[in-house]
């Protein structure tokens, strides 16, 4: 089936996705100018694992999610700046980041601590989408010291794709704004299907088994087959890749099926009281998140397991 690009609005919408580069690391660097260009990582609660890695640290081969103890020697050898997470600081920077974007776009949607969608259609006739993206990036940098990638496109899924390109290829200058079908097809041919917004790991594996490995191949997938196999959410994602705006500004790719609050302990826990305290803390945090999102839960699950990297003990969960 061919891939067409159509819009379901008389005046096509324009979406911008602004995403801070290595948010946690960038916040730490804001107070330490001497860290510019130096490898920086941020650790999880209890310093168990890496939760943020800047570009210089990635070049050393360390990856987000890696246990700290496993790469500690490598980090020390390369004089990597290591920080314990400071979520109060990151929330403060996130609020400032949102304020800057909101001053330039009348309608925005906070997607996560380091990502915002913005309605850029108000700039039509004032400046090009590329120029607006450059303005957003420059103002965020000037007012917060944070660098970000900006993607601008006719749908939120395509804006995400453009943002991915802006952050992946430095030659873009951190901004990619596309609406031309030929250029969008070219971009989609270079991006893996699993990197498309809303395509999870399980779906990616299923698509790969069908020979659908790029975003372009996904855009050309039969709509009816996609809906039958994966539901309406993937159908809408495909339509968005074709240029049809299906997700409103304040809408995501689907309702959350679960909410997880978990942490790795910095040291072995041997006392029941310690474990009870931790479970109570995380259950409380999960409740706070549910209330913030105005959601309810049908099932509550508590899981505890030993470290997958503990070679000296018998694993259990």
Helical percent range? 40-55%
Extract low-pLDDT stretches. Answer: 1-10
Largest sheet: 5 strands, mixed
Number of strands: 8
Backbone structural class: alpha/beta
Give the C-level CATH assignment of the domain at 22-86.
Alpha Beta
CATH architecture of the domain at 22-86: 3-Layer(aba) Sandwich
Q: What is the mean pLDDT?
A: 87
> What series of H and E elements makes up the topology?
EHEEHHEHEEHEHEHHHHHH
The rounded Rg comes to: 21 Å
Fold-level CATH name of the domain at 22-86: MutS, DNA mismatch repair protein, domain I
SS field, number of helical segments = 12
Distance between the termini: 47 Å
Strand order of the largest sheet: 5-6-1-7-8
Shape: globular
Strand content: 5-15%
Protein name: Y-family DNA polymerase
Organism: Salmonella enteritidis
Pfam families: IMS, IMS_C
Family: Belongs to the DNA polymerase type-Y family.
Structure description:
- There is one protein chain.
- The chain has a 5-stranded mixed β-sheet with strand order 5-6-1-7-8.
- It has 317 residues and is an alpha/beta fold.
- It is built from 12 helices and 8 strands.
- The chain is globular.
- Among the domains are: 22-86, 3-Layer(aba) Sandwich (MutS, DNA mismatch repair protein, domain I), CATH 3.40.1170.60; 181-245, 5' to 3' exonuclease, C-terminal subdomain (DNA polymerase, domain 1), CATH 1.10.150.20; 258-308.
- Mean pLDDT is 87; it is low at 1-10.
- The longest helix has 21 residues, at 272-292.
- Helix 4 (87-104) packs across helix 5 (129-144) and helix 10 runs antiparallel to helix 11.
